[in-house]
Structure formats: C-alpha cells, structure tokens
Amino acid sequence: MRVKVLSRNPDDYVRETKLDLQRVPRNYDPVLHPFEVPREYTRALNATKLERVFAKPFLSSLDGHRDGVNCMAKHPKSLSTVLSGACDGEVKIWNLTKRQCIRTLQAHEGFVRGMCARFCGTSFFTVGDDKTVKQWKMESPEYGEEEEPIHTILGKTVYTGIDHHWKEAVFATCGHQVDIWDEQRTSPMCSLTWGFDSISSVKFNPIETYLLGSCASDRNIVLYDIRQSTPLKKVILKMRTNTLCWNPMEAFIFTAANEDYNLYTFDMRFLASPVMVHMDHVSAVLDVDYSPTGKEFVSASFDKSIRIFPVDKGHSREIYHTKRMQHVITVKWTSDNKYILCGSDEMNIRLWKANASEKLGVMRAHLALPCTWDIDNLQLDGK
Model pTM? Predict the structure, then answer.
C-alpha cells in the first residue's frame, strides 16, 4: 500500500520575525499569466506619467485692469516687479511676490501700444494711440506729489512699439518708420525705413546691442544697424509677422511670430530659409519671448493658449490654457527662468510655472532626509 504524504517546509511560508512581510506563494508559470507583459508595460508607463499627471502649472491670476492687457515689460533689476499696459491707457506695476498691484497710472488716451524699462531700472517708457512717447519714474511719487511723466514727446504719427537700448541712453520707436531717439532730445537722431507700410514691432539685440529688428505690415522683417543708420537685411514671409524676439545667448538667432500660425527661427547671416519652423498653434501667433537660457521660448496666440517650444524642436513641449483665458496678446518669461506671465483679452495677467511639474516653496522638515551614499552599491539610506 502506497500512501502520499503532504510535505511542507515552514521556511517557505513562515516569517522569521513579526517585522517581516508575509510570504505569498506565487506560480510564475507564463502559461498562467498571459497578460503579464501588457500589465507590466502599463505600470511602467503610468509610473513615468505621474509627474505629468500631478503637474499644476497655474499659480495665480493678477486682476485689476479694466480693459484687455495689451503689453508687458520686465524690470531689468528686480525679479518681483513687472509692468503692464492696457487698452484703456492704464499702466500698472505689479509685485509678483505679494501678487498685487503696487501702482496705477493713467498713461495715455487710448491703447498703450508698447512699453519698455530703461536698462538701469530707474524709469520706463510708454507709447500710445495719442501719438506720445512718455518717460515715467519707476518709483511711486511722494505724498502730495502728482503723477506726471518725466518727459513727453509728441510725435506726428501713432507709435506702435518701443524698445530701449541695453547699455546706452537710446531708445527706438516704430510706427510709420523706425525712429532712434536720444533720451535728452525731443526729435529723433535718425529715422530708418525700408518700404512704405506701418511697422508693428521693434527689438534691440541684447548681445550685439547696435543691431535692431523690426516687423512691418507688408510681410517683411528688416534688420538695421544704428551705427550706420541704414537697413542691413530684409526677409519677406508669406504672411505678416506680428513680433520678433532675439535669442539672449546667440547673437545672430531670432524668432518671429507669424500670422500663419507658425513661428520661424532665423539665423540673420542666412536669411534665405529659417533654421526651424515651430508648428502647433491653431491661430495667429501674437507674441514670443525667450527664456534667459536661450534654449526655449514661449509663444502667445489668438487660439487662447500659450506654448513652450525648445529652440531646436518643431513642436511644443507644453501648452497652457484655462477655461476663462481668451486671446493671449502678450507673454513674458521671467529673468530667473522659473515663471511665465501672460496677458489676455479678459483683463487678467496669469502667472505660470516654466516647468509644469516643478515643486516650489520650502520643503517640509520631515521630507529633508539625511542620506549616506555607498559608492559600491549606490544605495540611499534614509533614517
């Protein structure tokens, strides 16, 4: 007579101590687990997506304007200060740390078409529909002192944009033509033009500071040299370019925001064809601004969204939008490379993270674990 005896080894299922995990017997026969590979693939994919899933890029909304935000400017010396101009002629100065408006002034009658800060940060310039260029103090007036500009220049035509030289007391305005001004004079030092259409935007090169770029309504982008007082080069695109921005790290590279839903990155030495065409927007691109590193830029569009593009990629890595955000008119990337500001039609300025999944603020005490590195085994021991 043969008797079968069940034999179990307690070492296979009994814990050595109460602190050990319970041992679960598993049969790893692949025939019993036909979906093992797809299941593990899904788990791995979800693990890599967690940062994107829990990303919260939107930080806050700065409200207070009574009309659409038409332009913005960064303070060259203060990270927490930003200026904004609205379609009702009102200019506001914001403190981003407190997320509140610290000063409001009625700068123009009609739209504020453009604004820029002086390189030293002591004053800023605005242009508007009332054909004036005004220079204002950055600091608020003393108690009892009236809010008045330092200088006012009355022009013959409407100015549509302004930008200040990065090192000298010189600024440029655009409208019917590009005018180069000295801060101490009421008439332009020289006037530059190439074509007969109105010019919508003008920008100084931050590295080669004597170079100037402009966008005109007749679809061309013109580059000027203010030392020679002559135009240098011209490139004509299929549709109108709204604005351009120079790369702060590469002197010859600039990116143009176009009406054909695309952005074009050019090397000014080879204007025959763009270095890269950046696609993804589904409506006209209205503004563009580079990050301080020069490796990425952010674009604002009529399609109610902003997108972040790597310079060397044709498609965006990030898209930001909210339910209430309307046509985005202006956008700025802060000088510390951490935040993005956008101004839109519905009178709000929104503050976003440049890196959507980045954790901001002070880390809690119990999360700061002391760690020791074992070079041989590369293990992290937290206590």
Answer: 0.83
